[in-house]
Amino acid sequence: MSGGPKPSLLVVDDDASNLAVVANVLQSTYRVRLANGGERALALAKAAPPDLILLDVEMPTLDGYAVCDRLKADPELRHIPVIFLTGRATVEDETEGFARGAVDYIHKPISPPVLIARVRTHLSLRAALGEAHHERVKADELLEVVVPKAAAEELRRTGTVLPRRVENVAILFCDLVEFTAFCDQHEPELVVPRLDAVFRRMEEIAREHGVEKLKTIGDAFMAAAGILQPVPESLEAAVRCGLALADEVPRIVPEWRARVGVDVGTVVSGIVGGERYQFDVWGDPVYVAAGLVGTGAPGSVCVRATHWPALRGRVRARQVATHVLKAKGDLEVVEIVSD
Predict the structure, then answer these.
(1) How far apart, in whole angstroms, are the C-alpha atoms of residue 266 and residue 256?
(2) Which of 12, 102, 124 lies closest to 63 in space, CA to CA?
(3) pLDDT reading at 139 higher than 60
(4) What are phi and psi of 331, to 5 degrees?
(5) What's CA 262's distance to the chain center, in Å?
């Protein structure tokens, strides 16, 4: 118990002599508050939730069972362990107490060694459960860093993420112009924090547009719209996201510019890897979006000309040009710019 504040106990009993006995046994090790009735106990618990409650069963007005019911009905108090203190010793009485949510029974007259042992055991269990919950929260947060949120939820729910083929998915690639030269000319202590700031802002912009980050590859940012959750007008969402990314990068690092490639179509998605999970996507839109990144000027978003009719009147195009993509041959490309 050393090294931090003493755990707090709330002892509830309508008999002053019983309160005195329990307090005398426990107050050297714990912070002990006393309540001589059910209503007073609930008020004290609400004002400052204790780590454990020792609760008499037989009390006038509001008995221990009723107090326990109200504690368990309160979202802020329901996780506090309750130990009943009672002279009732039948199997039926104990069954009733456990059914109400108690974690243990201590029979009167109270034995100090038993009281100390039971309190210590349940406080240790509460601490262990709290630590387990904390570690689970950290694991969940880490999982959502490694894979998209929807994939993380499916993985937690089912233990796996099913491979799937999805239509009308927009894939976005964004890379940083002049990053390599900047990296060669500056110390890592300058490069890495700036790159981190850029990628963090890219993640925020993607969320704002209903686009989900998939991963970063060197100085490239990859995202998708409509892969795990439906996104109306996935192509337009990805294009507008790309324009926002391209506008924002020079505001964060004036020496850098961004260019973006977007394509839409059918992809296959799934999780690969054993020691380290990686959610990934495959298909023609992935290849084309990655290839389109290098075809436009900094600050622009490039799409296939065949997709332009779906965007005409909603965004502004600067030019149409023909580029050669390996394995695709000549590809007409529309370069979209901010208004």
Answers:
(1) 32
(2) 12
(3) no
(4) -135, 120
(5) 28
Lowest mean pLDDT of 46-60, 84-98, 269-283, name the range.
269-283
3.90.79.10, 3.40.50.2300, 2.40.110.10, 3.30.450.20: which CATH number matches 8-144?
A: 3.40.50.2300
Measure the CA–CA gap between 318 and 324, rounded to whole angstroms: 19
Asked if omega into 250 is within 30° of 0 (cis), the reply is: no
pLDDT digits (tens, 9 = 90+) for 23-70: 999 999 999 999 999 999 999 999 999 999 999 998 988 999 999 999
Every domain of the chain and the residues it spans? 8-144, 160-337
Q: Tell me the percentage of the chain whose pLDDT exceeds 70.
A: 90
The verdict on pTM exceeding 0.85 is no
User: CA 24, 25, 31 angle in degrees (round to 5)?
Assistant: 80
Cα dist from 310 to 58, 91, 263, 317, whole Å? 74, 73, 12, 13
- Maximum distance among all Cα pairs of the chain, rounded to whole angstroms: 93
pLDDT, tens digit, 9 for 90 and up, residues 279-320: 788 999 999 999 998 888 899 999 998 898 888 888 888 777
Q: Can you say whether the dihedral through the CA atoms of 85, 86, 90, 95 is positive or negative?
A: negative
Element (H, E) at 38: helix 38-47
Class of 160-337 per CATH? alpha beta
Cα-flanking dihedrals φ and ψ of residue 311, to 5°?
A: -110, -15
